[in-house]
Design goal:
Layout lengths: L1 E5 L4 H12 L4 E6 L11 H4 L9 E2 L3 H6 L2 E4 L3 H14 L2 E4 L6 H10 L4 E4 L5 H17 L4 E8 L9 H14 L3 H4 E2 L14 E7 L5 E9 L2 E9 L3 H14 L5 E3 L1 H4 L3
Parallel strand pairs: 1-2, 1-4, 2-3, 4-5, 5-6, 6-12, 7-9, 8-9
Antiparallel strand pairs: 7-10, 10-11
Helix pairs in contact: 1-9, 4-5, 6-7
């Protein structure tokens, strides 16, 4: 399968390059980066810390979407919205790991998915997606008498909060209760807040160091507390999940999918 990577200069982009090169049945056909990036024109193999491929980093994603059978995107919300439109035009499968997408951008991705297969997930990890399924099941079983709090921590350079994975965990908990997360989400507590509102799903955010990603969902009841946690030791888990999603998406009809579809959960 011919695979392209957009946004290939960052830590995640370089990890994706290495994962594609290491995956049997995948061929890396190109990579792009932002205008003015210092890696433009650099050989993709060398950028990944491997032998030269004779394929260089370019600025224009249009030719990449025309050539590739699947493109993997861990960039920015604005860039991802454009990439989704290009994927629809070229009917190229697209795997989106970008976080911080707003409602307009999510709607644009859904429109693009009418024309090609798109896998969009805040977290490509197998473990995280198993945790999402568990959180929904536990939330459904325990009911609203248990308070739900979600704590996440990431490295100091992460720009969006709460993390996309934390929000996905919140949506899973809300789905288990049959409620809309937007109606029960509590993002900020500061000052004299009063008692906790029954049924809320709370979020707390920590930033510091080089933490790849820690998430803990706490169900707190009278006399007992249940915690479901996932801690990422490296970005490799996201890269391998994204390549797995690309291989899966190539054989699927047009539609918007998640990692739970890829993994058959």
């Amino acid at each position: 399968m011919k695979v392209g990577i957009v946004g290939c200069s960052g830590r995640m982009g370089q990890m994706l390059l290495r994962e594609v090169l290491a995956t049997p049945g995948c061929t890396l056909v190109g990579g792009t980066d932002r205008p003015g990036s210092p890696v433009l024109g650099r050989d993709l193999g060398l950028l990944a810390g491997q032998d030269s491929l004779g394929v260089t980093v370019t600025e224009d994603p249009v030719p990449l979407f025309a050539e590739a059978e699947a493109v993997i995107d861990f960039t920015t919300p604005e860039a991802t919205e454009r990439h989704a439109a290009l994927a629809a035009q070229a009917t190229t499968a697209l795997v989106i790991g970008t976080t911080g997408l707003n409602r307009t951008q999510l709607d644009a991705i859904a429109v693009a998915a009418q024309h090609t297969a798109i896998v969009q997930s805040a977290n490509m990890s197998l473990g995280v997606n198993l945790v999402l399924a568990l959180v929904e099941q536990v939330s459904r079983t325990l009911g609203p008498e248990f308070d739900v709090e979600i704590l996440e921590m990431h490295h100091r350079n992460k720009v969006d909060a709460p993390s996309g994975t934390a929000l996905a965990l919140g949506r899973a908990a809300a789905a288990g209760r049959g409620v809309d997360l937007d109606a029960v989400s509590q993002r900020v507590r500061d000052g004299h807040t009063g008692a906790r509102r029954p049924g809320d799903i709370g979020f707390a955010t920590l930033r510091g160091g080089d933490v790849v990603g820690d998430h803990v969902v706490t169900f707190a009841g009278e006399g007992e507390r249940i915690e479901i946690a996932h801690r990422a030791g490296g970005r490799q888990i996201y890269a391998s999940g994204a390549v797995r999603a690309a291989l899966w998406a190539r054989t699927q009809p047009a539609g918007l999918y998640g990692m739970r579809d890829v993994l058959g959960l």
